[in-house]
Design a protein that fits this description.
Oligomer: single chain
GO biological process, one term: peptidoglycan biosynthetic process
Helix content: 55-70%
Protein name: Probable peptidoglycan glycosyltransferase FtsW
Distance between the termini: 22 Å
Shape: globular
Number of strands: 3
Largest sheet: 3 strands, antiparallel
Membrane topology: Multi-pass membrane protein
Subcellular location: Cell membrane
Number of domains: 1
Order of helices and strands: HHHHEEEHHHHHHHHHH
Structural class: mainly alpha
EC number: 2.4.99.28
């Protein structure tokens, strides 16, 4: 236990951040080229080729934003690590209320920002933020608090499960119209895992799963573009130049990397064929430039993170802390899983980033705050372990265990 859970999670997080910054720099060159060509078009009315030096400068500007978010996130993580995790229980209601207010602001003209047909961001001066990222963490804290306090009542559907479903429903009801079905699916997955750990009866879990599937089907059917995504997922070549284009190019990127990849920064897909490669499809850039070996290493790092997080959850004696660690670990591990299966063509495209690696300040900062809380729980686990494993001093009785 000398090199304990806290240090392992911390150093693993730093490793993923370093990999993320490297890949953001590599995969942002194409986005920088498109931005420069767009500015050239506005100036001279034609898509002139941008010189190489401005592309490098523009790429560094993109990287600088991610570095700044990383620094802010690490500072926030260290602060949250030093705060006793039990204090978040006292702040749970206010954190949820704040997240709901920010989710409402998304739809307020002048504050909410429309990007690619979706209202998922708010802009306050120079700061642009995605409230749904914060809402995920706030919901985890609230569910951990409520489920631990009402563990005795969970066998009752009306008194035990329904109030928690109502809280989740309010959050999903504000996120779904943005629209952001991907985040809704992640929240649903987190909620299900926390319900399982809290001891919700199987029949209630079955109801939750059935209701979730029905709502997901309704959400898909009512939006024609989502129906097209499902059809394209089943047959990507049915619309190779429109709905199926991004998925096909992602599969080409993954396949062209081979065993060891084409080399870091050498992948051509980001320049000519794929947009949003630094965010929703960064795992395809990993496979293209680092190959099957690099992609496998990334997957194993996330598997290790999930294993360490669940080790924290299973070793802590407090149910609230257990649920808190479970929710945070599931949030990061679950979103990584969804991102990877989408990139590999195993699920319809949903627009989810790869935690700690993809470009995006909101997701990065919130994930690091969440990891700071997880580290706070891990610190307690190590303290309890040391208290019961060290031999008692002479003249003092040994600790009594149940």
């Amino acid at each position: 236990m000398r090199f304990g859970l806290t240090r392992m999670i911390f150093y693993l997080t730093l490793m993923l951040l370093a990999i993320g910054l490297t890949l953001v720099y590599s995969s942002s060159a194409g986005e920088a080229l498109r931005e420069l060509r767009s500015s050239h078009f506005k100036q001279i009315g034609t898509f002139a080729s941008a010189p190489e030096t401005p592309i490098a400068i523009q790429t560094l500007k993109i990287l600088f934003k991610q570095v700044l978010a990383t620094i802010i996130g690490i500072i926030a993580m260290l602060i949250c690590y030093r705060i006793d995790y039990d204090k978040y229980k006292k702040w749970a209601f206010w954190l949820l209320l704040l997240s709901l207010v920010m989710l409402v602001f998304v739809f307020v003209p002048g504050i909410g920002v429309l990007i690619n047909g979706a209202r998922r961001w708010i802009r306050l001066g120079p700061i642009q933020f995605q409230p749904s990222e914060f809402a995920k963490l706030a919901l985890i804290i609230v569910l951990a608090k409520k489920l631990s306090e009402r563990a005795h009542a969970l066998k009752s559907f009306v008194k035990g499960l329904l109030p928690h479903l109502a809280i989740v429903g309010v959050v999903l009801g504000l996120i779904a119209p943005e629209p952001d079905l991907g985040t809704c699916l992640v929240i649903g997955f987190i909620t299900f895992v926390m319900f399982v750990v809290a001891g919700v009866p199987v029949k209630h879990l079955g109801f939750f799963m059935t209701a979730g599937v029905i709502l997901a089907i309704i959400a898909v059917v009512v939006e024609p573009y989502r129906v097209r995504r499902v059809l394209v997922f089943l047959d990507p070549e049915s619309d190779p130049l429109r709905s199926g284009y991004q998925l096909l190019q992602s599969l080409i990127s993954v396949g062209s990397g081979g065993l060891f990849g084409v080399g870091l920064g050498q992948g051509p897909q980001k320049y000519l064929y794929m947009s949003e490669m630094r965010t929703d499809f960064i795992f395809s850039a990993i496979c293209e430039e680092l190959g099957l070996v690099g992609g496998t290493v990334i997957v194993l790092l996330y598997v290790l993170f999930v294993w360490l997080g669940y080790c924290v959850a299973t070793r802590v004696s407090d149910l609230y802390a257990c649920l808190l660690a479970t929710g945070i670990t599931t949030m990061i591990g679950g979103q990584a899983l969804f991102h990877i299966v989408v990139v590999l063509g195993m699920a319809p495209t949903k627009g989810l980033t790869l935690p700690l690696i993809s470009w995006g300040g909101s997701s990065l900062v919130v994930n690091l705050i969440a990891i700071g809380i997880l580290l706070s729980v891990a610190r307690v686990v190590e303290t309890e372990f040391m208290a019961y494993s060290m031999p008692p001093r002479r003249g003092r009785p040994a600790p009594v265990t149940a």
